[in-house]
Specification:
Elements: H1 2-13, H2 22-47, H3 51-77, H4 88-98, H5 102-130, H6 134-161
Helix pairs in contact: 2-3, 2-4, 2-5, 3-6, 5-6
């Protein structure tokens, strides 16, 4: 009767789990960031006064929801447990924005999105270059053009609104 346990042990030992690797850290961080982008995008749709900022918020919800869905499937295939919510820092940023309205909301949201997308691009480029898991690297590579598009768009909104980043 020992044979089934040995087989199960061998199967588990050879599974594609990356639970404690740098790739899993990237997955978890990307998940937190993606959830935060969706929440902040929803907030922008509600609180922004500039139509371009509202539209950008809608794009964040659409694009990051799609990326989050892909990331969830990837994490499941790698046996990585995703966080259930954004990080504490991201929650604090949302709480701060939630108390703003009008022009102050727009400026703060735009500046935050510029900073956030610059950091995201850096993180995704690092994974695309240095990641060990080919599927996680492929996710980073595939997502980078969208993040760069978001950065260009929010920088253009900032320039048109006279917001200095």
């Amino acid at each position: 009767m020992k044979t089934p346990w040995i087989s199960l042990t061998l199967v588990l030992a050879s599974s594609p789990a990356i639970a404690d690797s740098p790739d899993s850290s990237f997955i978890k961080s990307a998940a937190e960031g993606g959830m935060s982008e969706v929440e902040l995008g929803q907030l922008a749709q509600q609180n922004a006064t500039n139509p371009a900022v509202k539209d950008f918020g809608a794009m964040m919800v659409t694009d990051h929801t799609a990326a989050n869905d892909k990331l969830k499937a990837l994490a499941a295939s790698k046996q990585v447990t995703l966080p259930e919510s954004p990080s504490l820092m991201q929650k604090a940023s949302k709480a701060k924005l939630d108390m703003m309205s009008g022009d102050s909301f727009d400026k703060s949201y735009v500046k935050g999105m510029i900073d956030d997308h610059k950091a995201d691009i850096k993180e995704f480029q690092k994974e695309a270059t240095d990641g060990k898991d080919p599927e996680v690297k492929a996710f980073a590579v595939a997502t980078l053009p969208t993040l760069k598009k978001h950065l260009r768009k929010i920088q253009a909104i900032a320039a048109n609104a006279g917001i200095k980043d």
